[in-house]
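FYI - complex with nicotinamide-adenine-dinucleotide, inputs then prediction.
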Amino acid sequence: MKSPHSIKPVSGRLGILLPGLGAVATTFIAGVELARRGLAEPIGSLTQMGTIRLGKRTDNTSPMIKDFVPIAPLESVEFGAWDLFPDDAYTAAKKAGVLSNEHLDLVKDFLSTIKPMSAVFEPTYVKRLEATHVKTGPTKMALAEQLMEDIARFKRERGVDRCVAVWCGSTETWRAPAAEHQTLEAFEKGLRENSPEIAPSAIYAYACLRSGVPYANGAPNLSVDFPALHELARREGVPIAGKDFKTGQTLMKTILAPGFKARLLGLDGWYSTNILGNRDGEVLDDPESFKSKEVSKLGVLEHIFQPHLHPKLYGKYSHVVRINYYPPRGDNKEGWDNIDIFGWLNYPMQIKIDFLCRDSILAAPIVLDLALFMDLAHRAGMSGIQEWLSFYFKSPMTAPGLYPEHDLFIQLMKLKNTLRWMKNEGLITHLGVEYYD
Ligand SMILES: NC(=O)c1ccc[n+]([C@@H]2O[C@H](COP(=O)([O-])OP(=O)(O)OC[C@H]3O[C@@H](n4cnc5c(N)ncnc54)[C@H](O)[C@@H]3O)[C@@H](O)[C@H]2O)c1
């Protein structure tokens, strides 16, 4: 594949649009503003803190990623959001309880100015929330048009040149793709006829793509991952990516499992359980929303271990994932893993992990990187599914017929090689060519 002839330079302001102004979105916005004011570090973000090696190891050339590719500076970012509740970002952040008052008060003036636009919502898709700030319209197409008007107004009022969207809304109930999802024509007919198969998140995705806005999906629901919207993304020349931010337990899985596989250690079972008490946990307490999450979490191991290639090692392991809503924990999730592995001559061993993590602290840098990389891809003329951003997702979207890559280290190599490719730099394959040339 040829590298892009040129990447459009960064000029003007970038709008980051967030359907869902809850724990993740407010932690992200507050963190960006604290970083802009020099009051905190954007830890965990490749676009802000990552480096990229160029050329041979002996060249000692490893610039910052943000100096190597033209990434929009944090100073140029404007935020917009939609939510089911009218709370501004400061009030929502206080309720989410992720960041301390000490941090929030430093940016209270800024957060208080971010007021969500009213949401497109359907209670059958998120059962545990009673929305108070929603759009009404005769059809789902009319709602999509209202979202497009929101985007156009946001750009006008904030003096924004271009936008990207990252879904930070609740996890919707699990649905298999239906006929409406197969072609753009069928999907648009479904919008006009109010098909119950079309979820609110897909209406946002449609409105964004029609507005030329790249769309990344942080939740496991379909949203933009079906043929009709793949078609629209290609037609409009807009990048799309998903699904489900890779944080906490799945991050650990995709760090550890490639190691076991590399050393050909066998697996009898992997039992994962979580307790969490934030609003996301409350939504996931509904079995139909949990089903979306479960599907997304379960796929990871199979693709890493490839049981069809290694039936003796990975042919019949048991993989169980549980999430329990436990309010006292708030956003500070606890994830336990019990891993039964076996080695030489089938001798069994066990590994236990107890990860006391903070969900939104792990998710916020992902939102930032996705927004900035999706904007970069758009300016580089890339459109459709951005597999090179699989690094950030539990359940990466792929081109039809391909299996997703889950190994975190292969994902990172692919991401960095894509950046090298964009800039016509030699790819790094770790073949050690420096010894031979
Ligand atoms: N925090 C993590 O580590 C993590 C990891 C992977 C995925 N996710 C996903 O990211 C999403 C956000 O997580 P969170 O912890 O911020 O949840 P949250 O419940 O705090 O925030 C979600 C917000 O979305 C709003 N919302 C729901 N439906 C909406 C709609 N149709 N339009 C506009 N707003 C809507 C809710 O009112 C809520 O304020 C969830 O889907 C979650 O599963 C989070």
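The CA atoms of residues 51 and 65 lie 5 Å apart. The mean pLDDT is 93.
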